[in-house]
Amino acid sequence: MRVGSRSSLPFLCEGQYTTLRDYVQELHTRNPGTTVKIEVENEPNPTFETRTFKRIYICLGPLKKFFLAGKRDYIGLDGTFMKEPYPGMILTIVGLLQAIGTLYPCAEQKFCLQHIHENMKKIWRGKVFQDMLWNCASTTTIQEFNHAMEELRKLNNDCYECIKAIPPQHWSRAHFAGRAHCDGLLNNLCETINNQIKKAHDQPIITCLEYIREYLMLRIVSVQKVIDKVVGPLTPTATSVLERNKYDAAQCVGKLCGNGKYQVSGPWMDQCVVDMVQHTCSCRIWELTGIPCKHALVAIWDMRKNKQNVGVPEEWVHSTNWLKTWKEMYSFKIEPMNGRRIWEKVSMSNHFAPSQSSCPHQKTKEEKKEVNY
To answer: Where is this region: Disordered (predicted)?
Structure first.
């Protein structure tokens, strides 16, 4: 996706900065509810005709509704660098932990486990260490986590101390609160989208922003086509997880203890307490995913057997995993935009000039994995 020759690119960039306000106005017109914030460098002389551009934040109106309709309190972030002639960053992650800690003190923060492993394997290589790390991260109870960490300590105390230094609430399912109904340990979705954004990171600012907008616009339509073919009350992923849990539940035995509580035992000394009133299980999988675990399914089946009006297991799945919720999310479409020749001209006393500052060091693929937490 090249626009003109490399030598002409600076002139194209400068021209797009002068029409940036026109572009923003078109965004507001075509996609109501859009938020755009443009920050400029401090100008000592307020009468000066230009303002040096620093950064821009855009949140399209339809995507705000998209996020709220999803009912999942989960935000993923990743970053990519822009190239010459006016370098910078898209979705900057510098100082992210401190910023989130200040702005959202109650927000749960997760680290990508793959990045932790990339750091770890600089010293401790091999599948044994990798499997140990994943075992520690994927356990869902504190007791199982402590046991897995003890096994790691026995294997290599230095590696254990290194991993122990990372607060477990950032990478261990056993320490996740469950508020987002997402037990993911990786940041794959963000990195997938980021790889698409990289295709425009060497383009002038408006061209780059338009590439991102068009990609998201087409992605929503593409997913909508998939949704139209899905049958059932749940999303395909949730259906797959629930069916697997049903298979495992067939090997378990439940005992009603009163007050909506069950003691459920599995074939491998797997015994948990299910509270059907609170929608919880001591294995914590139901809380973390919003999908009834095998223990909860045993309780649901027993309640139905005893003529209680509890419905089918699918009705006990959290609404974040409903097909209805998925459809509502993707009902909000990003509207198409006119070309710049018919944009409304915004009359302002000053215009933007691009920053000439150099870009922070652009990390290589390997360096990006080696993020120190």
So the answer is: 351-373
Q: Crossing angle of helices 142-155/127-138, nearest 10°?
A: 160
Residue 69 pLDDT more than 90? Answer: yes
132 or 188: which leads in pLDDT: 132
Nearest one of 196, 210, 213, 204 to 2, comparing CA atoms: 204
The stretch 45-61 carries a mean pLDDT of 85
CA distance 249 to 237: 18
First to last CA, the chain: 35
pLDDT tens for residues 253-297?
A: 999 999 999 999 998 888 999 999 999 999 999 999 999 999 999
| Cα 219 to Cα 221: distance, rounded to the nearest angstrom | 5
Burial of 125 (0-12, 13-18, 19+ CB in 10 A): exposed
Is 94 buried (19+), middle (13-18) or exposed (0-12) by CB count in 10 A? exposed
